[in-house]
Write a structure and sequence with these properties.
With 201 residues, this protein is α/β, with parallel strands linked by helices. It is built from six helices and seven strands. The protein has helices at 12-21, 41-59, 85-95, 130-138, 166-170, 174-180; strands spanning 6-7, 26-27, 65-74, 77-79, 99-110, 113-125, 159-163. Strands 1, 2, 3, 4, 5, 6 and 7 form a seven-stranded mixed beta sheet that branches.
Length: 201
């Protein structure tokens, strides 16, 4: 019988990625005051992922815990989740026709210790017309997404090219997590490197 992984996140995207691998984690959302100060995006996502893992560990110290944090960064400016529809339109207009980075930090708690690291994927959007942006924002999909878009959803048509792991953009860098955790221990069925980019099952 596989050990049960604890996912310290309410993100349905992260849960879906784990389920695709054959892992059925216990899900526990944690409330933390996220760090928002001026840090490089890679450091910021690692710090906030650590916070989430630590908060979950206080409640379930005997468990193996996985937490994550994702941000979009353009020329050093961090785009988190938009405040409202107008903010979402602003973010998408800024990303239009440009290459940005998506950083996801992953933190693993086990045996009283937290390890954390981050992955980066570069995403290039084609030029997006204002009407397209408005129509996409009107669907409501961008409002709870870092950078105001879901690459696996309606924003997939905006992507011109992608360099790195798609799962990282969706919210969980599986290849990175696989280096931090023996995923087979939790039921992962894939014999390959786990990345959606290289794993077709």
């Amino acid at each position: 019988m596989c050990e049960k992984l604890l996912l310290a996140s309410a993100s349905p995207r992260r849960l879906e990625i784990l389920r695709r691998l054959g892992i059925e984690p216990e899900v526990m959302a944690v409330a933390v005051t996220e760090i928002t100060k001026d840090l490089p995006p890679e450091e910021l996502v690692i710090a906030n992922a650590r916070l989430k893992a630590a908060a979950a560990a206080k409640l379930k110290p005997e468990r193996v815990i996985l937490a994550a944090e994702t941000v979009v960064a353009l020329n050093g400016q961090i785009f988190g989740k938009p405040k409202d529809a107008a903010d979402a339109r602003r973010m998408l207009a800024a990303l239009s026709g440009r290459t940005h980075s998506v950083f996801t930090g992953a933190a693993v708690y086990q045996n009283g210790e937290i390890t954390a690291a981050a992955a980066e994927t570069k995403v290039t959007f084609r030029k997006i017309a204002a009407a397209e942006i408005a129509a996409y924002v009107a669907t409501g999909e961008p409002l709870d997404k870092a950078g105001a878009y879901a690459v696996q959803g309606g924003a997939g048509r905006f992507v011109q090219s992608l360099e790195g792991e798609l799962d990282n953009v969706i919210g969980l860098p599986v290849s990175l997590v696989a280096k931090m955790l023996p995923l087979a221990k939790f039921g992962a069925k894939s014999p390959c490197k786990y990345s959606q980019k290289v794993c077709k099952n």
